[in-house]
Amino acid sequence: MVDFSLSDTERQIRDTVRAFIEKEVMPLEPEVLRNERAGRPGIEPAVLRELQRKARGIGFWGISTPEKYGGMNLGAVMAAIVAMEMGRTFVPFAFGGYADNILYAANDEQRERYLMPTIEGDRISCFAITEPGAGSDARSIRATARRDGGDYVINGEKTFITRGNEADFVIVFAVVPGAGVTCFLVDRDMGWKSEPIATMGEWGPASLVFDDVRVPAANVLGEVGKGFELAMSWIRQGRYMIPARAIGSAERLLQMAIDYAKIRQSMGHPIAEYQAIQWQIADSHMEIEAARWLTLYAAWRAQQGLDARHASSVAKLNGAVMANQVVDRVLQIHGGMGYTRELPIERWYRELRLLRIYEGTDEIQRRTIARNLLRGHVRLGGIGE
Questions:
Q1: Would you call 359 a catalytic residue per the annotation?
Q2: Given 287, 359, 363, 385, which residue is catalytic?
Q3: pTM of whole model > 0.85?
Q4: Which domains does the chain have, with CATH numbers?
């Protein structure tokens, strides 16, 4: 039987993160809403850096970063629990000391130029594999990297790239003729351009254009032709972290609905007394708890060095659908007020809708889960294996 109980130290970490989010981050929510609705960035970089500095002062730096790079290396389970606590606010805050996991594949020179400055917050990276014609089907990417002497010349377009507008270097994937998909570290001053993409939510992705961008061969991350494996290791890590943060958001929203239902009067009674409201609250709580354990199980498998791919797909699909169902119910319980911009529910509604699309759509997760079952890669009732 899998034991998911937390040690005293782990509980202390969870409670410290929760207190930090409630005391330091949540009070910024009104300002974030005002900025976003005025067309400005939700939080200024200087404010974010100050929050990260405060967090570092109490020991929170590099939640998943190896200790040899100055991080906490809490492990996958605690990283998921921390993400749940961070999901309780829509302020775009993240603890500092983080770098994309595949950057640890860097050689010594690349570590000094890219990995360490990213961990310290001196450089900003973005991960670029998605293209206009290659989203979930990453093997269909068309960006090319042609060898020219001691360099590679990259041509192509990437789209929906998170932090693409702010990054000063990109971890980009392109096809080397005769070798296959390869990963490159490409500084912005090498010539790639970015353009913002307007979305229904506050996520601000970018399209990236590479027009004869010349990159030294020394900037290949890993091995030539081995980029697809790196890309998949990046994507798989994110799949159980997505529902983790969604759980925190759904819990915060559900608490808003509970509080409102107790004070909102209809026909002489608080609406909390009506079964129609009670069932929505009960269903939401049930779904949140189910998502929590599916997510923790996927994180536990990853932490134990077991194959977590199937469990992560299950957790990602379940968590994304759950969050969208919960926010829809919470908006319904609030009625017309929920639909206004006076409350942040509509903002969360737009943000959570993205979960069913990025880093593997609902359809891709269902295909993956079904194939694993049909091909016998996993068994029904296989928990504990």
A1: yes
A2: 359
A3: yes
A4: 8-98 (1.10.540.10), 123-225 (2.40.110.10), 230-374 (1.20.140.10)
